[in-house]
Specification:
CATH superfamily of the largest domain: MFS general substrate transporter like domains
Largest sheet: 2 strands, antiparallel
Distance between the termini: 28 Å
Number of helices: 17
CATH class of the largest domain: Mainly Alpha
Number of domains: 3
Oligomer: single chain
Order of helices and strands: HHHHHHEHHHHHHHHHHHE
CATH topology of the largest domain: Growth Hormone, Chain: A
Shape: globular
Number of strands: 2
Strand order of the largest sheet: 1-2
Radius of gyration: 23 Å
Structural class: mainly alpha
Length: about 525
């Protein structure tokens, strides 16, 4: 039987993919424009420091905590239906955020945005899984979908900067309204509906347990990143882990679990999910300090730093869309491992940064982005593809939850390590004459040191700035070295655990054989 006998996507599915990219573009833009809007909304709403932290963090908390529940809910009620509900809620919450009259109102709106956002990512990924059953087409679709994050991240600062220059701060939140309106109009026309025909009973207690476990762990990690180890952060993480353990035990006994733990018995699923999560863990820790290096050590303006980061975004888009071509003839294990080696080479260049190493940083960023494009596209593809169609929503949610955990853990552990290195070097070289009341904030972050230097007498300020910048560079170098070790370790893991996963050309032949013998079945049925 020819490969054409396999179910293949047509024009409608590819146009529908463009619709599914809208949430990825929006979420990436939303993450970047908020930071630009913080000074403006702070001047208007006058939030306390605690309220400002909640304004920036609550969105990520609610997304992370709700992903598992929303992914499983989509499998039960229909992925398109959940996507439409989430799009409507996201648009409404965006309007509420834009016209907030108090800090607490904005926090509540951001929390609603997070819950709505948690419906979008699992729904889009699982719909891709069901719309593109052919492995080759699915990898192409995921590569295009993944590149949407880079496009949104690159466009966000430009659009956000323009809006803040000409309109009130609330305008950045209104970006979500036309995007979600387009999704609501085009979705029912272009996207088919899929759901599990035998979903079983929805366990409300499991949903609350997953929400509590993820929220407590993510909150504890963020508290650790901001304030160091404290009783609150430790208790939060420990209680979250205990609830998570009880959640897993409950899933083992339920006839209709919220998460099918059998997914983790598939080597491709477990190894790809671990690689994706740990890759983001190392990635976040390194890029946090690279962004600060560009602006606070090299003195680039935010727009200039964004422009110098653009080659990395383009490299990510290129490699994420090149991955589907390469995986046709090459085993995914080798491609993912090769991408991780490229990332290690890029991080290796950062080990040698100095006071003025712009080109070194740009080239390192390009190499890492090329590697990430291959790695993230193929690992997401393997996570989603390893799950049966009726469990695609749950698998997608696990993938995104892993990304949230990896990012939070990277910021908490690697970010804290970098700051500790910065503080130790600065304490040994802090110039005499610094007023005692600013010593502590200066030792906390490079940003505080730059701000304090601008307020001191010229000579003293220059000495402080030089000392702080010199103290920051070893921190970046050590985090980059950790990145090298981490990426190489992951490359070895992938090459070992995923070596039996076939190239797509061989997978097609295998599926054709199953199809001919009646072995290719899908229990998730489309509803037009």
């Amino acid at each position: 039987m020819s490969a054409n006998a396999l179910p293949r996507a047509g024009r409608r599915e590819w146009i529908g993919l463009a619709v599914l990219m809208l949430p990825t573009l929006l979420i990436a833009m939303d993450l970047t424009v908020l930071h630009l809007a913080v000074p403006h909304l702070s001047a208007d709403l006058k939030p306390t420091s605690a309220q400002l932290l909640w304004i920036t963090d609550i969105y990520g908390f609610m997304i992370a905590g709700s992903l598992v529940t929303m992914g499983t809910l989509g499998d039960r009620i229909g992925r398109r239906k959940l996507l439409m509900m989430g799009a409507a809620a996201f648009g409404a919450a965006s309007i509420l955020a834009a016209f907030s009259t108090s800090a607490n109102m904005l926090i509540a709106a951001r929390a609603l945005l997070g819950i709505a956002g948690a419906t979008l990512m699992p729904s889009t990924m699982s719909l891709i899984r069901n719309m593109f059953l052919d492995p080759r087409q699915r990898t192409v679709a995921i590569g295009i979908w993944v590149s949407g994050f880079s496009v949104g991240g690159a466009v966000g600062p430009l659009v956000g900067g323009f809006l803040l220059e000409h309109f009130a701060w609330g305008s950045v939140f209104l970006l979500g309204v036309p995007v979600m309106a387009t999704l609501l109009i085009a979705g029912p026309i272009l996207l088919p509906e899929y759901k599990d025909p035998n979903p079983g009973k929805f366990d409300l207690l499991s949903a609350f347990m997953s929400l509590a476990a993820v929220l407590l762990v993510i909150f504890g990690l963020k508290q650790f990143a901001q304030d160091g180890l404290s009783l609150i952060s430790a208790i939060s993480v420990v209680v979250g882990l205990v609830i998570g353990y009880l959640f897993v035990q409950r899933q083992r006994t339920l006839p209709d679990p919220l998460i099918d733990l059998n997914l983790f018995r598939t080597t491709a699923f477990s190894a790809a999910l671990a690689t994706y999560t740990l890759g983001i863990f190392v990635n976040f820790g390194t890029f946090l300090f690279v962004a600060q290096y560009l602006q606070l050590v090299l003195g680039l303006k935010p727009m200039e730093a964004g422009l110098w980061s653009a080659p990395g975004s383009l490299a990510f888009i290129l490699s994420s869309n090149l991955a589907p071509r390469l995986v046709n003839k090459t085993r995914p294990a080798y491609l993912v491992a090769g991408g991780l080696v490229l990332a290690a080479l890029g991080a290796g260049l950062l080990v040698f940064v100095g006071n003025d190493s712009l080109i070194l940083v740009v080239v390192g960023n390009i190499l890492m982005s090329l590697g990430f494009g291959l790695t993230f596209t193929l690992t997401v593809d393997m996570v989603v593809g390893a799950a049966p169609p009726e469990r695609a929503g749950a698998a997608s949610a696990l993938s995104e939850t892993g990304a949230e955990f990896g990012g939070a853990l990277g910021l908490a552990l690697l970010g804290s390590l970098g700051l500790a290195i910065y503080r130790s070097h600065l304490a040994a070289s802090l110039p005499a004459g610094i007023p005692p009341e600013i010593v502590k904030p200066v030792e906390e972050t490079l940003g505080a040191a730059v701000q304090a230097a601008s307020q001191l007498p010229a000579q003293l300020g220059s000495e402080l700035l030089t000392a702080a910048q010199q103290a920051f560079i070893p921190a970046l170098r050590i985090l980059a070295f950790i990145g090298v070790v981490g990426y190489i370790g992951l490359a070895i893991l992938v090459a070992t655990m995923l070596r039996d996963v076939r190239p797509h050309a061989e997978t097609d032949e295998h599926l054709e054989s199953d199809f001919a013998m009646g072995g290719l079945t899908t229990s998730a049925q489309p509803e037009m």
